[in-house]
Amino acid sequence: MVEELVELIRDGRRLSILDVGGHSGLIADFLPEDETFILDIQPFEGPNCTQGDGAWLPFEDDSFDLVVSVDTLEHIPPDRRARFLQEQLRTSKDYVLLTAPFEDENIALAEQIVNDFFIRKVGRPNHSLEEHFASGLPGLDETLSFFDQSGLQHLEIPNGYLYNWLVMMIALLEIQALPDSEEPAAMINRFYNQNLYVSDNRPPCYRTVILASKQHSLDRDFIISKYEKVEGDDQVGTNLKLANLLLNLKLVEPRIAALKDELEEQTEWALKLRNELEKKDAYINKLQREFEERTEWALRLREEIEDKDRRIVELRDEFDERTEWAKTVDYELRKKLEERMEWVLKLQQESDERGRRIVELQDELEEQKTWALGLRDRLKERTEWALELKDDHEKRKEHFEKLQEEFEERTKWALQLQNEAAEKDRRILSLRDELEVQTQWALQLLEELEQKDGYLKRLQSEFEERTQWALQLNEELTRIRQSWYYRLFGKLEIRG
What we know:
CATH topology of the largest domain: Rossmann fold
Number of strands: 7
CATH superfamily of the largest domain: Vaccinia Virus protein VP39
Number of domains: 2
Radius of gyration: 57 Å
Distance between the termini: 26 Å
CATH architecture of the largest domain: 3-Layer(aba) Sandwich
Mean pLDDT: 82
């Protein structure tokens, strides 16, 4: 009925519609061309779905062309119903479509009958009807007065002929008690839509549909005329058809039970097969994870080997640099040592010459002393001159001692350089030995990596075999689904 009313008011437009309390999402099936949004207090998932309270809609003013609520107002606590209606008016640009059962003694009696029948079939009260009893159904006059006070044009259409509604509710409860009741329930609903709906919008009714508009003057007579009672409606014949359908469904109940037992056996076997497949899948996943871990380990090992190779190259370059440096230092040390030795020999020759000169001077002094015995004045002069020579000799002797000490220090420094050069040679030999050990270790790592690669190839081969085996199991499961009992179950029909 919501679909029919929308078609009457859409005026060729694609509408944006909010369904408040439309948890099932059926409105999108009836209005696929429109942009539909759903809000419900219960958590659910789907496109354009929002969880929220209908009395506090999380939308801006005039957000939708039409705001709909189907069988929702009666579940709102009485003190919040006015707020619920105000929110629908606030968020709608134009139309509000409201359907609900309103307070009436016949409706209350019909709901009590259905609830009692539900308790006998299920063993507990119906939750939705219990909410009706707890909060009480809303008043129709009070609701219409709200639209009048808000200045909205509105019209009311009865929906759900009460006698049809009562029989339908009992029929659906009876069908839902059967195993695999989804298809029989769908058949009952198709029967209702094809045979009863055409005369369903008349009093006494279970619910009332209220259509209100902010902007348009509704053509009340035209819209209501679409739902007037069809002349010549044979309610008794229709109810007999419904009773016959229920009887036929009752007769096939034993056959459905037998098929259910067989289906349970096959289902149990299929579940065992599925468990086995899940175990195999888990084992395959485990192998895959192990393969990935081994691959990561091999990559890390390869990186370590590459690092070692780079370190070996660096050590080799450093060794070559140290060798060249040692050769350079050794050549320079030898050259400096030769220069020092030449300088020392030159000093020694100079010292020898000075010693000979001193001896000659001493001999000459002795001769002068003999010659100066007779020449005292001259002797005095010669004596003074000899003293000056003696002072000069002392100075030269002190200078020679200093040179000799410096020569000894230079000799010690040359020996230290020679020892340092020997230590460098030993370090170079040690580095060469370490390089050989590192090279041997790198060769061992390379051999181990080749072994790991072979193992990974064997794992990959085993993984491909397991995958082929899983595909064969899947084909076998497909053949099972195409077997005779699945085809028999697919051909099962409920005849009316």
